[in-house]
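Appendix C: a fully annotated inverse folding record. The material below is reproduced so that readers can follow the format used throughout the book. The structure is listed first as tokens, followed by the designed sequence.
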């Protein structure tokens, strides 16, 4: 019973610590892409996610050195902790929706999608979307580290290298995500989505507890045997996906912030109607949503690395991306068609593939 209560409350404690660190750790103040609906000015953000991540990992390591079982605590109480995170996600979603003016849509639509696009608190010191992404990413990292620690504490020298490879790939995923925080201010989530259950519950409960499902499903299992060539292949799949996702986002970021400048030697080519402009070469010439393919490949590399390809549970992670991103591509294409009109038709004739080059 003690573990159940402590495990249930653990996410709340971690989220509060992360929030406090976000408020007190020095941050860069940057101007984003989204326009404030009230002032008409570009929104400002305080970004220090990478610093908060590093401090959070150091706090986790320090707690483990003081009491070794704390290294694997999040894995040991994972189901109680998940229940706590699910509760926090629902409470946050209710608060962020009910505190905003009625939109005219049904309550269920408002609750799921949200009413506010870009809410900020503490005089702009905390942006809801960036806070959610940071909290979710750091909790994901701690869950991955705790799972790997549990596996090592159980099996010692007989541990599976794949568990540590998978945890390392997740760590890279989180570290580079928080390193390039500013780039994500130019992504779909910020200019097209509102803040409700989908985003709030997703970042507080789903994202940090579902993404490490490969580790949760295999950390208690013995090593399946090591195939070095396959491990290298899985790592290459991950970094191939990372190259597509990060490269595409960075090219778009450079194009939005430094028009005309080359990115990785790629000079931007565009289509324009005199008012609106679309990027049509480099990563964005391969497919209209090449970054989505990158996300799916990264997930595949992470789950394959644990070494249990026949276990169905890890496959839920990349399948989730397929279920999420393919419909999002369709929605985004509809939105772009409405926004750009004939220019988008011209773009589609130039860049024929939606996500997977030469296939889809």
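Designed amino acids, in order:
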């Amino acid at each position: 019973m003690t573990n159940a209560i402590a495990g249930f409350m653990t996410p709340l404690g971690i989220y509060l610590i992360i929030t406090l660190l976000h408020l007190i750790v020095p941050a860069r103040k940057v101007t984003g892409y989204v326009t404030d609906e009230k002032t008409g000015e570009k929104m400002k953000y305080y970004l220090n996610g990478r610093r908060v991540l590093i401090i959070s990992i150091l706090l986790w390591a320090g707690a483990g050195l003081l009491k070794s079982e704390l290294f694997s605590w999040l894995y040991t109480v994972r189901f109680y902790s998940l229940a706590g995170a699910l509760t926090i996600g629902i409470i946050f979603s209710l608060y962020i929706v009910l505190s905003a003016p009625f939109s005219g849509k049904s309550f269920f639509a408002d609750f799921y999608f949200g009413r506010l696009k870009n809410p900020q608190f503490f005089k702009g010191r905390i942006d809801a979307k960036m806070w959610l992404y940071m909290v979710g990413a750091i909790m994901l990292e701690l869950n991955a580290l705790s799972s790997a620690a549990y596996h090592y504490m159980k099996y010692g020298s007989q541990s599976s290298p794949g568990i540590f490879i998978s945890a390392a790939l997740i760590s890279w995923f989180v570290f580079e995500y928080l390193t390039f925080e500013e780039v994500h201010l130019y992504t779909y989530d910020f200019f097209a989505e509102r803040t409700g259950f989908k985003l709030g519950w997703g970042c507080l409960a789903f994202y940090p507890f579902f993404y490490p499902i490969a580790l949760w499903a295999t950390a208690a299992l013995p090593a399946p045997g090591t195939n070095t060539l396959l491990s290298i292949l899985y790592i290459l799949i991950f970094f191939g996906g990372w190259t597509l996702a990060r490269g595409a986002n960075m090219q778009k970021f450079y194009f939005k912030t430094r028009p005309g400048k080359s990115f990785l030697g790629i000079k931007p080519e565009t289509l324009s109607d005199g008012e609106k402009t679309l990027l049509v070469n480099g990563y964005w010439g391969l497919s209209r949503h090449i970054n989505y393919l990158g996300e799916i490949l990264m997930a595949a590399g992470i789950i394959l690395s644990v070494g249990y390809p026949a276990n169905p549970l890890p496959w839920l992670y990349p399948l989730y991306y397929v279920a999420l991103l393919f419909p999002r591509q369709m929605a985004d294409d509809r939105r772009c068609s409405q926004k750009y009109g004939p220019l988008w038709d011209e773009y589609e004739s130039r860049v024929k593939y939606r996500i997977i080059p030469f296939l889809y």
